[in-house]
Specification:
Layout (H helix, E strand, L loop, with lengths): L3 H14 L7 E5 L5 H4 L2 E7 L17 E7 L2 E7 L10 H14 L3 E10 L9 E10 L26 H14 L4 E8 L7 H9 L4 E3 L3 H9 L3 E11 L10 H22 L5
Parallel strand pairs: 1-4, 1-5, 5-9, 6-7, 7-8
Antiparallel strand pairs: 2-3, 3-4, 5-8, 6-9
Bound molecules: hypoxanthine.
Length: about 270
Amino acid sequence: MPDQFALTDSAAQLILTHTALRPQIALVLGSGLGGFADSLTDATRIPYADIPAFPRSTAIGHAGRLVIGHAGSVPVAAMQGRVHLYEGYSPQEVTFPVRVFGRMGIRAVILTNAAGGINLSYSQGALVLIRDHINLQGVNPLVGPNDDRFGVRFPDMTHAYAKEYRQIAREEAAKLGIPQHEGVYAGLLGPSYETPAEIEYLRRIGADLVGMSTVAEVIAARHMGIKVLAISCVTNMAAGILDQPLSHAEVMETGERVKTTFEALLRAVLPRMN
Ligand code: HPA
């Protein structure tokens, strides 16, 4: 396997030559949620294709570029679109951007995603702070020889989703009048949506949300000591809850509908993530 440390390091160096900003916070914007990156000021936009070894996204609704700019007065690096395991990317490719962030000096990452709501107290469009996850993707990005330059062999996952960041997000959501939810995210491989029986199983094992991303990125981030805030947008109630089929169009539509609220929350949380 090519040396991930050297590859991520050279991608990070190249990115930093494009901008004088030195962000310490990065955002990964999921399906339909990429609009936030368009609102950054003093922005430098770098297509993934121009960053060596950076994976390019193929999913619909993902722009595929890194935007570095200011959110208010906070310099940030924002990924407009991510790659997923279901696209055929390896766990190393999926986590490459997070590792590049680490090499850029990023200390905290906000991961956003679209998810199906399993918890019946959620409704379509709800924003949910991820409190913990269940990895059902069948892979872990740290499998293979450990590179101690990234982190330890057996990273702790007890505090994967920083409690203080969730607290900040709850406070800012309250100020904005956004209902506050927290939940456990089950990460599955996809790309087919779950069956109703799978959703019933996920509910019984303690999942509130289901999606096809985020988990591998969180593991790689924690490995490097990067702190994590993760927020799901419940774009649809999970399979079998409502008597209707799920569609990617519905996921995109809901993302579009809540994007103003979502962006307001991100904007409010960022200055407090020190
Ligand atoms: N299941 C899995 N992933 C998803 C869903 C879902 O219902 N909605 C958005 N991403």
